[in-house]
Amino acid sequence: MTDVSGLSIGILGGTGDQGKGLARRFALAGLKVMIGSRSAERAREAAESIGGGATGAENAVVAAETDLVIVAVPYDGHKALLESLAPQLAGKIVVDCVNPLGFDKRGAYALPVEEGSAAQQAAAVLPDSRVVAAFHHVSAVVLLDPAVEKVDLDVLVLGDDREATDTVQALADVIPGVRGVYGGRLRNAFQVEALTANLISVNRRYKAHAGIRITDI
Ligand SMILES: NC(=O)c1ccc[n+]([C@@H]2O[C@H](COP(=O)([O-])OP(=O)(O)OC[C@H]3O[C@@H](n4cnc5c(N)ncnc54)[C@H](OP(=O)(O)O)[C@@H]3O)[C@@H](O)[C@H]2O)c1
Q1: How far apart are the CA of 73 and the centre of ligand 1, in A?
Q2: Which atom of ligand 1 is nearest to the CA of 18?
Q3: Per-residue buried b or exposed e for 47-69, using 16+ beta carbons within 10 Å of the residue's own CB
Q4: Which residue has a Cα nearest atom 6 of ligand 1?
Q5: For residue 1, what pLDDT is reported?
Q6: Which residue in 2, 31, 54, 192 could disulfide with 26, CB within 3.0 to 4.6 Å?
Q7: Could you tell me the distance, in angstroms and rounded to a whole number, from the CA of residue 69 to the centre of ligand 1?
Q8: What is the pLDDT of residues 70-87, one digit of tens each?
Q9: 128 CA to middle of ligand 1, Å?
C-alpha cells in the first residue's frame, strides 16, 4: 500500500463545496491541506472554516507548493485554469474530479468534450503532469456533513501511470469508509464523469446522496 501520509494536498477551487469537502476529510485524516482560489482571501476563509491546520492561497501558489493537486473547479473554467498553471503543475500528480454536465428541465446530462473527457482535457493541457481521474461520485454534501463519520462508497481511480493511480487510491482510502478502486485508463474517463448524471437522477428520485460500490474485489 502506498503511504500518502507525508504528502501535501492542494485543491484548486477549494472554496467550493466539493473542494472544501475533500479538504475537510483529508485534514481530518491528518494530511497537510492547502485550499486554492482565484482570491487568496477567499481561500484563507475556506481553510479557516475547515480547520485541521488547512491553509489557503491563490491557485498558482497552491499548485506550486503542494505535492499532489486536486482540480475541483466547474467544467467551464477547467481548461483555462489548467493551461495557466501548467508550469507549476509539471511533474506532479493532478487529480481531476470535474464532471462536465449540463442541466435542463429533465435533469442532468453529460456534455460532449472535444478531448474525450474533462480528465483527458487536463492531460492534453498538462503534458508534463501525471493526470488521474477520481472522486467524481463523492457527494460534497456527505463530505461536509459532520454527522457522516464513514462515507459509504468506492472511488473509481483512472489513469495511465500505475504509481500515480496507486497513490490516488491510497489517498481515497484515508477517508473512512471509502475504498479507492482502479477503474482503467484515462481514455475511459468519459463514462465515469457521465455516470454522475445518472447518480443525480437517482438522488432526485430517492432523495439520497448515492455513491457506487464495485462487487467481487
Ligand atoms: N459538488 C459535488 O457534490 C461534486 C461531486 C463530485 C464532483 N464535483 C465536481 O467538482 C467540481 C467543483 O464542484 P463544486 O460544486 O465545488 O463547484 P463550485 O462551487 O461551482 O466551484 C468551485 C470553485 O471553483 C472556483 N471557480 C468557479 N468558476 C471558476 C472559473 N471559471 N475558473 C477558475 N475557478 C473557478 C470558485 O472558487 P474561487 O471563486 O474562490 O476561485 C468556486 O468556489 C465540479 O467540476 C464538479 O463537477 C462536484
Answers
A1: 3
A2: 16
A3: beebebebbbbbbbbbbbebebb
A4: 136
A5: 82
A6: 31
A7: 14
A8: 999 999 999 999 999 999
A9: 24
